[in-house]
Amino acid sequence: MDIILKNANVAHRDEPVRNADIAIKGETIAAVEANITAEAGQTIDCGGRLVSGSLIDAHVHLDAVLAAGLERDNQSGTLHEGIEIWTDFKPKRTVEAIKERARRAIDWEVAQGAGFIRTHADVCDDAQLSTQALVELRDELRDRVDIQIVAFPQVGIKSFPGGEKQMRDSLDMGADVVGGIPHNEVTREAGHASVMFIFDEAEKRGLKIDVHCDEVDDSHARFLEVMVEQTFQRGMGASVTASHCVAMHSYNNAYAYRLMGWVARSELNVTANPFDNIILQAREDSYPKRRGMTRVKELLQAGVNVGIGHDSIMDPWYPLGRGDMVDAASLALHVCQMSGVEEIDTCFDMITWRNAQNLGLENYGVASGAQADLVIFDAASKADVLRINPACTHVFKRGQLVSETKPAESTVMGGRVDFTRGN
Ligand code: FE2
Fold it and tell me: Which end of the chain, C or N, has fewer beta carbons within 10 A?
C-alpha cells in the first residue's frame, strides 16, 4: 500500500463507520476495514477524526472570483449593480488575469477540503475569455482538483443576436455542461425557447445541464416546471440540475408542493447557493423580508437531491467569502432551519455525496475501489465539522497529499482550550 489512514471515523451516507483503517494504492482506495496490517509507504493515525470524501463545490463563478472592487465597488450591494459592474469589467480582463485570480480561489477551496468544483463560465463575450481561461486551468490543475465547466449565458441566449452562437462556441471550446438563465430573457416565451435550446444542445452533445433557474423573487418565474417537463420528455433524469430556484420561496404552497413532487419524480437535482441568495434576494422587500432561499428542507423531504454551491468568492455580487464549503453548509443549516440532529448531518451530505450525485461523479466516497479523494477533518463527526469548522488537516487528490493545515491552538490562562464537548 502507498498510504494507510488508521483509526478513522469514516463519513458515510448513513451511520459513520468507527475506527476503520483506509488503505490507498495509487489513485484508488484499496480497502476500508478494521485493523489493516499491510505495509505502507506512509501511515497517518487519524485518532478517531472524521475522514470524508472530498468536499464538492457544485456552483461557483471562477471567472469572476476576486474581482470585487477591481472595476469599482458595489455600493448598493444589489444584483443589479453587480451586473452593471461586471458588464463594464468583462472586456478589460485578460485570460492570464482570470486564471491568476481563479487559481488563488481554487487553492483556498482545496485547502478547505474541496476536490471537485463545478464552475460557470460567462459566454456572453465574443472573445470567450472565461471559457478559454477555465478550460486551460481545468487541465493545468488536474493534480489538485477536478473541475467541470458550465457554459453560462449571463445576459441570456435568446434575447440578443449571437446568444446561441456564444453558447455553441463555449461548448465547442470544451465546456462540459450546458447552462442557462431563462428568467433573465426578455419575455416568458424567450425564456421557454432558451430552455428548449439548452436541452437540445445537451442532448445532441451528450452533456449535462445546469441552469440558473428562477433566481428572482417573482413568484411568477416558473421555468423550473419547464425544466422538469423537458427532463421527463427526454429521459435525462439526474443529469439535469436547476440552480438557485429562489422564486420557489415565494410560490404559494399548493403550487410549490405540487412542483416539488414533480421535481422528485423527474430526478432533477437542485443546487442552493446560500451566500449570494441571502445577500441579494428580497432587496425590494420592506419588512418582513423573505429569506430568498429555495425550499431546501421541503425539497429534501419530497425526495429531491439538493446540493450546495459557494457561488461567489469576492466578486461584484458578493464581496466576502473564502471558498469554504463548510461555511456555506453552515449558512444553509441556519437559514433553512435544519437544526435537527439528522438535518445537521444532511447539511454535511449536501457538500459531499449529494453534490457528487448532483455532478454525476462516479467512484466518489470512502469505499474500496473509489478514487482516493479524501479529507481528514480535525473533528470527530459531521455535526462537529458544521459546529466547529475545523481545519482540514490532510487533503488527498487521487491518492496524493495535496494540502495540509495545522489546526489552530487556543489557550486561556495558559490552559489549552478544547472545543469538543468532552464527556
Ligand atoms: Fe450563479
Answer: C
